Structure formats: C-alpha cells, structure tokens
Amino acid sequence: MGKDTGLKFLFLSFLILSLFCNKNLIAQETGILRGLVTDSTTSEALAFSSAYIKELQIGANTDMRGYFLITSVPANKNFTLIVSYLGYQTRTMTIRTQPGKMSHYDIQLLSSDIHMKTIESRGTRISGTSDSKISVDRISAKQLETTPKGIESDVFRTIKYLPGVTATSDVSARYYVRGGTSNQNLVLVDGITIYNPFHALGLFSVVDPDIVNSIEFFKGGFGAQFGGRLSSVMNIVTKDGNKNDFSSKFSASLLSGKFLVEGPMGKGSFIIAGRKSLSNSITKKFLNDETVPIDFNDLSFKANYSDPDFLSGSKFSVSGFSSMDNINNSDPRVEDYKWQTRAFGFKWFQASDSPLFFELGVSVSTFRGQTIPKFSNKTPLDNKVNDLGLQMDFTYMFDNRNEINVGMHVKQIATELLFVNASGSKVNYNNSGANIVLYGKYKLAEFDFFKLDVGTRVNLTALSRNASKKSLEPRMNLTFTPFKDFTVKGSYGLFQQELTTIGDENEVINIFEPWLVVPDYLPPTTATHAIVGFDYLLFNSTNIGLEFYYKKTDNLPIVNQQKVALTDNDFTTAIAEAYGMESSLRIHLDPVTVTSSYTLAYAYKTIDNLRYYPKYDIRHNFNISLEFDLGVEWNTGLVWTFNTGLPFTQIVGFYDKYYFDNFFAGWGNAEPRRPYGILGVQNLSRLPAYHRLDFTISKKFRLHPFNFDMSVSILNLYNRQNIFYFKRETGERVNMLPFLPSATLRVEL
Amino acid sequence: MKKSFLIILLFGLLVSCKENFEPFGDLKDKYVLNCVIKGDTTFQIASITRTYANDNYNPYSNTTDHNVGGALIRIWNGDSVVVLRDSILDKPANSKYQNPYHLYYTNKFKLVSSTIQIEAILPNGVRLTGEATVPNEVKFNYTDKVYPPVSKSFVEFIWNPGVLDNAYLTQVSIYYYKADDPKKTVQIAYVPASYINQGGVDFPIAPKPNNANKLVIDVATINKTMELISAGDPNKANYVILGPFLEVVSFGKSLSTYFNSITRTNDAYTVNLSEIDYSNISNGLGVFGVYLKNYQPFTFTHAFIKSFGYTPGLADAQAYL
C-alpha cells in the first residue's frame, strides 16, 4: 500500500467513524466531567487511579498524567464520585456538571497504609470497561516499592515477574518479551527514547525507581502512538516533584549511594536525583566472583511550570537525564569501556475547555559506547547515536465516550559505528535519516459491551533506504464483554523497526549493545502481532487473565556469524516466530495479596533454513508472589520463580585444533594444539530448570525530623544452584546468584 | 501466616538445590586433516586426527593423541601429484600426549601451481578433500634499509598489496652471539609489535596477522629489544650484533580465514558460548592452506650498536647510506 493510499485510508476511516459514531458532539442536556487526581502530600499525579460515578455506574481510569474524563454526565444534578487508588484512602465526593460544558475537579487522595480497599476493585471493574487495552501492565510507584528489592529496587527487574517477559540470567536486567530480541524493546522516559538503559554489564537499569511516577508496559499490540520497536514498550513517566514542600532523601545499599531532592519552585516544582556506585564487591556475586572495576553514575532532573493565570490547563516541563559507566582497568593489557546516555526534553501539555488534550514534545537523546583496547587483543569500537525528536499528540473525547487520537512524530536519527568486523577489517557504518510519522487512532467506546481501538502509523519517510516498501503500520484492539465481569480481548498489528544492535546471541554477558540504523542492503524488520484473551473478575477479589499470542518477525537483522571472507556481509537476516499462552491470577484478601502467573511459550529463529530455539526460549514459566501487609508500616513478601531450562548447545566431541601460536618460534608456547569443543545442533538441549525464592521485609518509621524506610531482602533463600553457563574450555560450571542477603536504608527529610 | 511461611520454607529446602546436567551429547565422529604447505621448502607434513569424547568435563585432561595412521594422502600440484609417506614419531618428552603419533610427510614437493588440492583416504574408507590457493609473493616496494632512520621515529616496510583476502604476519629478529662463546652460537632477540610497562616490567606484545601490506615499528621498540639483549649483564662488549632481519609471511585465502577465525577474541568480560570453527576440508575438519615467506635484511649502523656498548659483527651500515 502506497503512502498516499495509506493517508487517504487513515483520514477516511476517521471521518466515517466520526460521522457514524459521534451522534451527539455537543449535547446540551449533559456535561463533561474532568478530574485531576493527585497525592495530597506532594500533589504528584496519580496515574491509573479509578474514578466512577456511583449512580450512573460509569467511570474512567486516570491517564499517566493523572487526568480522567467522563462524558455524558447528566447536567445540573448531583452525583457521587468515588475515586480510589492503590495505597490511598478512597475518596467520595459530590460532583455536578453544567450543560454542554466541562467541569473540572482537582481531587487529592490521602496516602494510606492499607494497600487495597474493596471499593477499589469495584471501581476498577467499572472504570475498566472503557479500556480496550490488551497485553498491558501498569505499575505505579507504590507497586515498585512492594516488589522484592534484592540489592536495589530496579524497574527492569520488576517487570521480569510479568508473564511473557523472560530473562536469561540473574545477572542481567536485560529482558525479552514474547520471543523478541532485547533490542526490540522500546524504553521511553517522559517520552524520550533511551538507547542503552543498563548500568554495569546489564546488572541494573539506569532508571532510578525513586523518580518513577508510573510505568505502562506493553507486551504487544501497542497502539499507533508507539513505534520504532517490534516487541514491547516501557513507557515511564517520572515524578514532577513535590509541589507543596521541600524534601530530600538519601539512601545507601551495598551497591550505590543515592540522593533525591524535590520541592516547589514558583508556580511549579522540581525534582533532582542522582546515584553513584559505591562498591564493586557485590557485583562479584553476579559475575562468578570476578571483580570488574565498574564505576557508574546517573543524574535525573525535571522541572515543571503550571500557571492558570498564564495559560489555563497548561503544564510545561523540562526533563533531563544522564548516565555514565566506566570500566577502567589498571592493567594496560586489559581493555577499558565507556558508555553514556544523555537525554533532554521539553513538553507542553494543554488541557482545553473542551475534552481535548494536546501535547507537544521536543527531545534529544544520545548514546555513546566505546571499547578502548589499550594493549589487549580486543579490537576498538566506537558507537554514537543521536536522536532528535519532535512530537505532537492530540486526544479528543466525544460526548458519547468515543475518542480520537492523532499525532505527528518526527525523528532524526544518526548512528555511527566503528568496529572491526569478523574478517578483521575496520569498518565504519554511518547512517542517518528522518522518520516522519503520522498516526491516528479512533477509539470506539460508546457501547458497554464492545470497544474498538483502530488506527495506523503512516511512515512518510524512513531511516533506512530499503524501508519505503512498508509505510503503513495498522493496529487494532477490541474488547467484547458478553456478560458482567467477563471480557474477551483481541489485538492485531503490524510493527516496523529500522534500528538494530550488533549484539551476539551467543553472548551470555555483554558490556553494551551498539546501535545502528540497519544497513542499506537489508530490508526493514517487520513484525505481526495477533493476540486474543480474556479477563474475568471473580468475587470482587480475584482477577483471572488469559492471553494467547502469535508473533512473526521478518527480516530480523543479525550479525553474520558465518562471515569469514571480506566480501561476506556483516549482517544477514533471520525469521523469528513466537507463540504462547499467558495466564495470571490475582487474589486479594486483606491483608494478603497473592499474584501468580503461568506462561507457556515457544520461540523460534530461522537462519539459512536452520530453525532453532533462541537462547531466551523458556517453555514454562511460573511466578507466585505473596504480599503480607503486617500493619503499622511493616510489609513482607515472598516471590518464587520457576522456569524450565534455557536452551543450550551440547558439546558433541573435542578435537585438538591448531592455533599456530608459535607460527614464528619467537612467540607462543611449544604445543600449537588446544582442545576445541565441537557443538551439536544449536540450542537443542536444555539446562536444568531454574527456580528461586526471594524474601523481602520492610518497615517505614519516623524519628523526627526524619522518615526512615528500611528493607532487608534475601535473594535465593534456599540457595538453589541455578546454572548460568558451562565453560567449554575448562569444563567449569558457572552458577547464577547464590543465597544473597542485602539491606537498604533510606532516610527522608 | 507462620504456617504458610514454614511450608514454603520447607518446600524450598526439600527441592534440590543443585541439579546435575549433561553438557555433552553423543560423540560426533569426525576426522581432522591439517596440512599447511610452506612455499620455501620441499618438505611438507600433514596429520590426521579424529574427534574424541572426554572422560571428564575438562578437555585439557586428555593425554591421548587421537591421530590416525594408515591413510593415503595425495596432493595435486598442477599436473603432478605427490603422495605423503606415513611415519610414526615419538612424542617429545615435554608433550602432554602419552602416545606416539603418525605424521605424513614428503620432501619432494615444490609449488608450481596457483591452486593445489589434497585428498586423504582413511583406512576405513572415509575421504577428506580440500583445496587451497597460493598467496601472492611478497615483493617489497619500500624498505628502510639502515637503522636508525634519519629524521624519523619509526622504520617502515611496504610490500605489494596482494589479494584482498590475504593476511600477513611479520617478525623482526636481531641476530647476535657472545664473543666468549667458543661455538659462536647465534642467538635471536625478537622485536615485538610494542612493549607495555606493567608494574615496572616491560611486556612484549606479539605481532598479529592482519590485512595491511606494511609494517611500521617504533624505534623505541627496537631500542628496548636491544637493551634487553644484555639485561643484567655488565659486560656489554661481549655481545656481537650481526644485524636485524625481517620476515613476512603471506597466507593464502584459506589460511587467512582460518587465522582470522582463531584470533577472534572476546573482551575481558563478555562470555560467548560459541566461536566460529572454520574449515576448508570437505567431509571433515581442519585446514589445508599455503603460506609464502619473504625476507628482508636491514642493517644497524656501528654507531647505533656501540651506543649500547655492544660490538658490531658485520660491516658498517653507514657504507650503504
């Protein structure tokens, strides 16, 4: 389908849908209710909280900015609005709308030590009916606090407990979603793409959990507003900072020291947080007792301005982020590494007097990774990514609850990659291009039993020269609620990616993955997602979810491992296929919450007619967590994870291979032969099953003028020796994390 | 709640904390033919080994040389064919292998063709074949003939660019003997690519094969090698310096590729569970390739040799200037 045809299709679809579905644009007998839900102490927006009108049995969830809209509210009548949120006291208030007008309410919720209220389930059930999202998990700052911390609370490690998300080791925070590679996961912080979100060989993510307000994590079937990646989107919104009072936090763990300062600033607020590595001793536990001289730091800030006298309903914010990692070896025969990520963004959010939201964003994101060989045998590598983005998004909700969302995203991306390829030649891949995308989606939400979310991205220009063949990325989500508390969901979408990394799939640990725009001789990578599933709410306390997915990826760029001659291409393509079933169960009976998930998954890759299981193919995954609210700010939790073994390639014999170390008599040893393990069919065997039990207990208390948050965690409580990998050269078995107790203390002023 | 916690803990303790696994599959029986033809001699050797399974997980514990005797090995070289003779040799005393080994050899081989083929027919009928191309001969376009160079901090040797896929390996040696040695045994000091100083000790970095058709050596590296010849010995004049010597080896395509595959190194932290195993032997493993060697002498000036306190052993290079 050509670009023009695509555009015509897009706008025609919206026009038709608008005409048919929008029968009552400005109904004079009803009004619109808009609310902004915030924390009463800090005025921080509370994303994903639920609001519903008791008498009308209609409701909505707040978006990531804390806003909700409920249209078609009968005017000039008083109604009871109930607003609830995890970890906050439910608030009941009277609201009234004016005919044909927008009525805005600022709703502040008081933090509670009781995590869940019965009313919340009710509210979620009703407000959730307007939601047609599928394969999405929403994590709030409160939830991040309650997950097992290990050495340090980590956003990326938290999502590993979600069904459909896999990891290949305890060591790396790198994750794989539904059979996709790790470079297919988009990480957005306040709308800015972060290219290398990992510290210290992937041990930890660069996003400090203390600055996170909320996270939306899409495992597939994501809407037309997201693009550029094939597998998942992690959309992180950071905190605005305390608008009411100054506060500061300091914390230290076995790994790093952190600070956070926030407070009001004129008509807005600010937040600034930083982190610095303190010790390498704990990383030895992760790295087979090897000391790696890792040094890292990161700094985040955000400031916002909101003045109704200047521009009503507006909010301006600037945010920045910088992370830096160094591995500096004192031995000149061992190479050094440096990598850094920097991001800066400006946003203007505007809520108008009509049910229209507008957001303008400008951002810059850069990454640079270097390998400095010094006098080692390692070859040099230098990778630079410069990403300049401009985006405009409009959301309009019609009176009948239908919604239209359109926008334009422009990205100018330049990548430079200097490395020594597999044939020993220095190559320089420099590529740049502009990706101009128009997107639009229409959300049909006027019927209680049926919701439809249909849209497309139209790539007007592409980063790589071969990308023009596929310019349209249609997406569709739908929900059908045949009877109360039971919702069937489905999703279909086409996704395109033009960036890749030169990571090697056979590497179980790597330093960083250099990025590049796919070379011109390769077509763009595309993926098709098809998802069906259902959600069922039982007895107001039990949520059951089940999803089936299928994902096919074409033209997946991979490093050509078979390159031996100069004329061979550095990259080739593969086909990937993944399908599976994910189920989840959540039971909340005060004071205990039990969450469990089971995933049955199959992932395949095909390269040169060889179909094999990629290293992240885990057949069965089971997670169960128990959270106990012990009262008086004591909380404890247990998480047990079970995975069937990861694929590995068996050794089917050795032979004594010539290494010619002593080609000239002056160098090397006398024996030129060393044993070489011959590998069998790739990844045909499985490692033993992985399982681990983690325990956390935390207590919050106040010693005037300080607030303390103390937690103790034990990873791998029963010291399961989960195998990480087997060294072919020496026959040594390397295990993952052993029994590992740790403690964190946070002090807040 | 206490009960459930105890049950979970008990369950955890009951489940196996360590599970054994088998990293080895059934042995894949394969034969390995290695034959590297040297362009500067008529004496050529080849060997055949086979794959083996190890009794334990550490492959270095193997002490049996799984070589294969009784095979017929032929090399086609243009219109002629040479048959290699099977012989049995005792292992050197310091070898880890315990058994004698079969070595196939000929002393009647002279390269005449640009492409040569090998065939090995094993006693059990297995046939291994391979083909190799002869690399371009190294012809020097530019060399610094006298050392130390004038107005330069390095010496440079440039030769003709060969085929794109050819790799080169170089070695600079300094020949000398001790005057008080009645046999005048010539000794060699090898000049590395560079030295690095670690903890006050200079470590040499060996040259590596690469595609560049030139060699550049810093004078500091040669000077350091000269110093190290007599390190710790106050009697410098006892060292008679004959001169330096450059060897350049050009590898044919198959050997270049083989070298490239075995010298790919991971970084200090990356753990890679795979490595490319290049072979140009059909129906088996190993490598069949050709390399050519060329030599380029250059000379030290007497003034340079004497600056270390050594004795010049040849005529003064100053005469060549």
Name some characteristics of this structure.
heterodimer, A: 749 residues, mainly beta, Immunoglobulin-like, Ferric Hydroxamate Uptake Protein, Chain A, domain 1, Maltoporin, Chain A, 22-stranded antiparallel β-barrel, 5-stranded mixed beta sheet, 48 strands, B: 321 residues, 2 domains, 13-stranded mixed beta sheet, 3-stranded antiparallel beta sheet, 4 helices, 40% strand
Task: Provide structural commentary.
The complex is a heterodimer of chains A (749) and B (321). By secondary structure, chain A is mainly beta. Chain A has three domains: 3-130, Sandwich (Immunoglobulin-like); 138-234, TonB-dependent receptor, plug domain (Ferric Hydroxamate Uptake Protein, Chain A, domain 1, Beta Complex), CATH 2.170.130.10; 235-649 and 684-748, Beta Barrel (Maltoporin, Chain A). Helices cover 6% and strands 55% of the residues of chain A. The longest helix of chain A is centred in the N-terminal third of the chain and has 19 residues, at 3-21. Chain B has two domains: 31-134, Immunoglobulin-like, CATH 2.60.40; 140-253 and 292-320. The mean pLDDT of chain B is 85. Chains A and B meet through strand 31, strand 41, strand 42 and strand 46 of A and helix 1, strand 11, strand 13, helix 3 and strand 17 of B.
Radius of gyration of chain B: 27 Å
Distance between the termini of chain A: 59 Å
Roughly how much helix do the residues of chain B carry, as a percent range? 10-25%
Name of the CATH class of the largest domain in chain A: Mainly Beta
Number of domains of chain A: 3
> Which word captures the global form of chain B?
globular
What name goes with the CATH superfamily of the largest domain in chain A? TonB-dependent receptor, beta-barrel domain
Write the layout of secondary structure elements.
The complex is a heterodimer of chains A (749) and B (321).
Chain A: H1 3-21, E1 30-39, E2 50-53, E3 58-61, E4 67-74, E5 78-84, E6 91-96, E7 102-109, H2 118-127, E8 136-140, H3 141-146, H4 155-159, E9 165-166, E10 176-177, E11 185-189, E12 192-193, E13 198-199, E14 204-205, E15 212-218, E16 232-238, E17 247-252, E18 256-265, E19 268-277, H5 283-286, E20 294-305, E21 314-327, E22 336-351, E23 356-372, E24 381-397, E25 403-420, E26 426-444, E27 450-459, E28 472-483, E29 486-497, E30 499-501, E31 507-509, E32 515-517, E33 525-538, E34 542-559, E35 571-589, E36 592-607, E37 610-612, E38 620-631, E39 634-643, E40 647-648, E41 651-658, E42 673-679, E43 685-686, E44 690-703, E45 706-715, E46 723-726, E47 733-735, E48 740-748
Parallel strand pairs in A: 1-7, 11-16
Antiparallel strand pairs in A: 1-4, 2-3, 2-5, 5-6, 8-15, 9-10, 11-12, 13-14, 15-16, 17-18, 17-48, 18-19, 19-20, 20-21, 21-22, 22-23, 23-24, 24-25, 25-26, 26-27, 27-28, 28-29, 29-33, 30-32, 33-34, 34-35, 35-36, 36-37, 36-38, 38-39, 39-44, 40-43, 41-42, 44-45, 45-48, 46-47
Chain B: H1 2-14, E1 31-38, E2 44-50, E3 72-77, E4 80-89, E5 101-106, E6 115-121, E7 127-133, E8 140-143, E9 146-147, E10 154-159, E11 167-178, E12 187-191, E13 194-198, E14 201-205, E15 214-218, H2 219-229, E16 239-251, H3 253-262, E17 271-272, E18 281-282, E19 285-297, E20 299-300, H4 302-306, E21 311-312
